[in-house]
Amino acid sequence: MIALERASLRYGPILGLSPTSFELPDGGGITGLLGPNGAGKSSLLQLLSGLLPPSGGEVRVFGQAPFRNATVLSRLGLVPEGDRLPTGLRADRWLRMMGELSGLHGDGLKTAVTRSLETVGMADRAHLTFARMSKGMRQRIRLAQALLHEPQLLILDEPFNGLDPEARLTLMALLRDFAANGTRILVSSHILGEIAQLTDRILLLFRGRLLAEGTVTEIRQLLDRHPVELRLTGEAQVLARWAVEQPELAALRMEDGGVVLSVRSPRDFLPRLQKAVVEGRLPIHSLDPLDLNLDAVFQYLTKDHA
Amino acid sequence: MSTAAPSPLATLRATARGYAPRILQGRGWVLAALVILPVGISILIYMVAQIKGAEGRPHPGEVIKVFHEVLVKMMLPIMALVAAPAGIREDLEQRTLPLLLVRPAPAWALPLGKGLPWFAWGAVWLVIGTLGLQIIGGDPALLPGRMIALVSAWWGELALMTLIGLLFKRGTIWGALYFFIWEPLVRIFPPFLQRLTFTHHIESLAGSRAAEIQANQMLAQEQVTTHPVLALLALLAFGALCWALAGWKLQRTPVGLAGSEAEG
Q1: Do the Cβ atoms of A85 and B96 come within 8 Å?
Q2: pTM: predicted TM-score of the whole model, two decimal places
Q3: pLDDT tens across A197-232, in order?
Q4: How many CB atoms lie within 10 A of CB B191?
Q5: Chain B residues with CB-CB distance to A104 below 8 A
């Protein structure tokens, strides 16, 4: 369905996406595009949705280059990032226009608009103008416009931004339904947990480079190989004595009033730490993960790929 | 479901109908006011004069002044400067253009599709304004020519501004420079350059105002004439060319989610 062959994208002197190659097979399923801000996720999605042509290499969607290609675009739906919608228009009329621009007409158009609005739970509020809608409502309308023509490939750029927890869960359930019914979904996010709840396959991007590709478990294992820094405060010598006995310890640094541990496989290490604290063998005052955020994890992976 | 791409005509119809409600909002009424205010004030002055008994009869000279000096030279360009940014340029600036560009519809038809409601709305008010000038003594024989001149020039000026809006980031400034610097400045250049102004073609269609103006108000040192039919064709063709170029520009320009162009 999707094939990139050393596809790259430049914005003038800035490299948005380094030469990248990967393939996604036909059929339904959800693929997560994960990376911190500025990783190149939107660049990749713009290449795939035909908004921008590659600066180098080749992008194929349904076997063809997508840029201004009506054949590809009629099978693809895009929900761009942000909540921008045209000012001064009513949602139902705007959706009708978007349906017509997707090649729908007559009863088919009417049915598609009604069905999309019902799917996103906006059937009773579609007469409102965008200015009178909340951010969550606008996000639903943006999803509805992408669903009008029942695309085989649905691309969503940071769709959970600004949504409340309930709306997130609703959207996740919707996306899972579409995937189960044969739609291939590509969804980007910079939050690992969000993607992990949703998808069976992840593409990991950082600074315009595709770092890794695989299932959530594979990516987690890849991340686990890298040491994570934790600061423990308490009696430094006692803490150090306990830490050096742990097989996951990669490095140890003594500090005033504590230690900084560098540990591999934190998912194995942390339960043991917790147990030791509960049993009173480890008198700690505080525990601070220094680099458990996604950026730090990407930094490790970058070093690996350097 | 895989749908067939809509035809260019279906794209024009869908876009024009979809964005038509925009003309009934603030900017649309500003557009109407640009025509109605000067004409309305002229009518008001005429009526007050009539009530007071002085100069109560129709005044063709005043009509010519309002038509040529106010409507043609000032209001028509300002209308284009006001309306064009609400066309396809608006989607570019509001970053909503990608939502249109990921549709299978031909991208080149979008500028005209978004411009058509504004053209129709402006044309209606220009016709009403020209009819209003009859109240203060417009020559009935010149009425059709004046209407056609304003509407065809509106077509051309709106198209030009739409094109400029896609070519330049500060399209309004470039448009204002063209309308308010080039058009008056052209009279110091060789006479044939008059044909590169809207004013010349409007005057060719709407009738000369030579009898009503001073020598220093002449457009050029030497009077250049163009047959009205040719002037009409020139305005319509120029407008069509600008719409086509705007479509071509949009069709070939990569427009990303940030509204900026990638190197591509």
Answers
A1: yes
A2: 0.82
A3: 888 688 888 877 888 888 766 776 666 666 778 899
A4: 15
A5: 3
